[in-house]
């Protein structure tokens, strides 16, 4: 049987602007195709940080300038980012696979991720989104019930919550595609956060940490490996000192100790470690690998990267 691998692509694998993204996904597609040729069955998740911010800014500025249009909520902006990133990514992967004589369908699933309405994170927003606001604009946002924060250098920005993922609404569809041998792109940008209201789903004004969503995806499809691609070849502790220490193989317990001792970057690396721990402890025989795009194939073969096991 092929090894089932969930890959979480970071910002570097996608670029920022539209032209950058089209170049970046072609490079990423080569690495992903290498893994397919090596016998991996891939399920791909990805970042959307600059893209969703761009969409949010554009849609809200458009709504302000045109009386006949409304601003777009965060859930809609997230859906848009999943769609256009998935479009570029699936086409780049398909072209790379076909060029190698591999004929495998590639599909993007616009994914909703269930969050808990009582999650404390919903009442403590931390993720900045959108452009710099004036004090008047910030006041208007607060009147709407949104949160804003003052930023260095002057001005304000809107901030949204980052709740933990509880379940994936489209998981049955994702499983069906994976079982059919297709390459699936899902949970882009952490998925669209939704709250259950009876039989309906309501978009939440939030952004789910994409690594935690990737970990939940890996858990629910019973993946063998969760590979999180970031900027570094290996995870380091004491990263802010003159003598950072790279980690090769650690257990989930050791990883949690490092978290408790604040030895990882809280915003950048800690969610990746937490997602890895959640995944490897949710089943038997699972492992998580954290490395960068350039070393993904070598890391899958055990030659580099940081490996976290139960």
UniProtKB/TrEMBL annotation:
Which molecular function terms from Gene Ontology are attached? carbamate kinase activity
Please verify whether the record's keywords include DNA-binding: no
The family database entries (Gene3D superfamilies) matched by this protein are listed as: Acetylglutamate kinase-like
* GO terms classed as biological process: L-arginine deiminase pathway
Write the record's keywords in alphabetical order, separated by commas.
Answer: Kinase, Transferase
List the NCBIfam families.
PRK12352.1
Q: What is this protein called?
A: Carbamate kinase
